[in-house]
Amino acid sequence: MREILTVKNLSVIYKVEERKIHALKEVSFSLREGEILGVVGESGSGKTTLGLSILSLLDEKAYASGRILFEGRDIFSLSEQELLDIRGRKIGLIFQEPAASFNPVLTIGYQFREILQKKLNLKEKNLVSQIIYDSFKRVKLVDEERILRSYPHTLSGGQLQRIAIAFSIALSPLILIADEPTSNLDITVESQIIHLFLRLKEELNLSVIFITHNLDLAKVICDRIGVLYKGKMREIREKETLFREPKDPYTKELIEAFKKLE
C-alpha cells in the first residue's frame, strides 16, 4: 500500500517564558493510502501538536524540527501560499469542538459557499450548490435548506460535526486529520460519526489520522494504531497485533487497563 504521508524525526519544543516544553520527541511514522491510522495517548501526550504540525499550524512559541513529507515535498519548507493551497484542499482538519469550525455570525450556507469559492475557485452557483448537496448527502444530513440558512449556535453538536466533515470532503482532500472528533458528543451521536468515518474511508479512499484518548474507539475504527506517550511514539502496529502482542511497557499497561474496563 502506497505511503501518502511520511513523518521523520519530528520534534516540537514550546518556549514558555524561560522554560522549554518538549511536546514531541523524534516522532516518526507513515500514513498509507486509504487507511485510518489511530494516534492514541492521554492528555498532554502531544496528540494535538502532532496534528497541527502536519499542517504547519503551530503557534509562534513553538519550534519544530524534522521532516513531514507530502507529495514529495517537506511541509516545513513550503511558503505560506503553498501551505494555504494544501490546507483544506489536500489535507483537511476536523476539530474536537464542532463549533470551533464555524464563524458564529455567518450562516452555514454563506460559509460553505465561501470555502468552495476560495479553495476551488468556483464561480458557478449551480455547481457550488450541487457540491454542497452532494456533501450533505454523503454525511447523511437532511433538511439541507434549513441548515444552510441556520447560524451555528442554532444547530446541535452532532449536526455541526457532520457539517464540518461535509465542508472537508467537499474539497476532495487526500488526508483528513480528525482531532478527538467525538469527545464532546453523546454516545449515540459518537457511534454515528464513527460509522460515518468508516463509510467515507471506503467510498472516497480517504486516508485518516484519527487522534483520540479513547482506546475503545481506536480499536473499532483504526487499521493501525500508534501509541504516543510524553511526546514519544512508543510503538505503531496493526491494531490486531497491538492488542494481542504489545511490545512497549507503557502500551502493555494501557491495554491491560483497557481489558479490565471491558
Question: Can you describe what's shown?
Answer:
With 262 residues, the chain is of the alpha/beta class. It has a single domain, classed as Rossmann fold. 40% of the residues lie in helices and 27% in strands. The chain has ten helices and ten strands. The protein has helices spanning 47-54, 80-86, 108-120, 125-138, 144-149, 157-170, 187-204, 215-221, 239-244, 249-261, and strands spanning 3-16, 19-32, 36-40, 62-70, 73-74, 91-94, 175-179, 207-212, 224-229, 232-238. The strands form two sheets. Strands 6-7-8-3-9-10 form a six-stranded mixed beta sheet, sandwiched between helices. A four-stranded antiparallel beta sheet has the order 2-1-4-5, with helices on one face. Strand 4 (62-70) and strand 5 form a beta hairpin. The two termini are 33 Å apart.
For the record, what is the CATH homologous superfamily label?
P-loop containing nucleotide triphosphate hydrolases
User: What CATH first level would be assigned?
Assistant: Alpha Beta
- Mean of the pLDDT scores? 93
* % residues in beta strands: 25-35%
Q: Percent helix among the residues?
A: 40-55%
Q: Characterize the largest beta sheet: strand count, sense, and whether it forms a barrel.
A: 6 strands, mixed
Query: Strand order of the main beta sheet, please?
Result: 6-7-8-3-9-10
Number of DSSP strand runs: 10
Q: Shape from CA axes?
A: globular
Q: Write down the Rg.
A: 19 Å
Report the end-to-end length measured between terminal Cα atoms: 33 Å
CATH architecture field = 3-Layer(aba) Sandwich
